[in-house]
Amino acid sequence: MSKPEFVYTTYIETTPEKLWHALTNSDFTERYWFGYRATSDWKAGSPFHFTKDGQRAVEGKVLVANPARKLTYSWDVVKQGASRERTSRVTFDIEPRGKVVKLTVTHDELDERGETFRSISGGWPMVIASLKSFLETGRELPADLPMTRPPEERCDA
Fold first, then answer.
1. Global pTM?
2. 116, CA 20 to 30 Å: which among 36, 87, 95, 110?
3. 3-state secondary structure string, 34-81?
4. What SS3 class is residue 7?
5. Could you give the 3-state DSSP secondary structure of residue 132?
6. What are phi and psi of 20, to 5 degrees?
7. Taking Cα atoms as reference points, which of 124, 103, 90 lies closest to residue 12?
């Protein structure tokens, strides 16, 4: 049986450099990622983590860091109450297309029986929509948007 994979592509009116900055700057991620801060020095081999309200939710290691082109990191859900699953991988491919940037997010190497795949299937589209809105208008999506499940039951970040 093949492992599930999540792929999401969108086009954002921005530059590759601004998109990279938004993906790797803690102050930016906290705004469009519904309160989660991504922290790392964003060099291959370095650790990274997402925290919210001082609690670590996801941690991993930067696997590929090619500024304004590609970012890949491992993904381990460590939030209290989350079931332990295999380490998965997230890749952001950034491709300039004239005045817009094509962003493809791939989350793969997922545990076929785990909760992460179900959670990210709703989580990633909201995060990427909020990122797109933030870069194009300066406003992220409202933090109180209704989710498929309450935030405390989700394991996406």
1. 0.86
2. 95
3. CCCEEECCCCCCCEEEEEECCEEEEEEEEEEEECCCEEEEEEEECCCC
4. strand
5. helix
6. -60, -45
7. 103
Tens digit of each residue's pLDDT (9 = 90 or more) over 101-151: 999 999 999 887 778 877 887 889 999 999 999 999 999 888 776 554 444
Q: What are phi and psi of 113, to 5 degrees?
A: -105, 5
pLDDT tens, position by position, 58-102: 999 999 999 999 999 999 988 766 667 889 999 999 999 999 999
Spell 33-46 as b/e; 16+ CB within 10 A means b: bbebbbbbebeeee
Question: Which distant-in-sequence residues (6+ apart) come within 8 Å of 106 by Cβ?
Answer: 5, 6, 7, 90, 91, 93
- DSSP helix/strand/coil, 30: helix
CA distance 7 to 125: 10
The two three-digit tokens of residue 122, written as one number = 């709703």
Length of the chain: 157
Bridge partners (DSSP) listed for residue 1: none
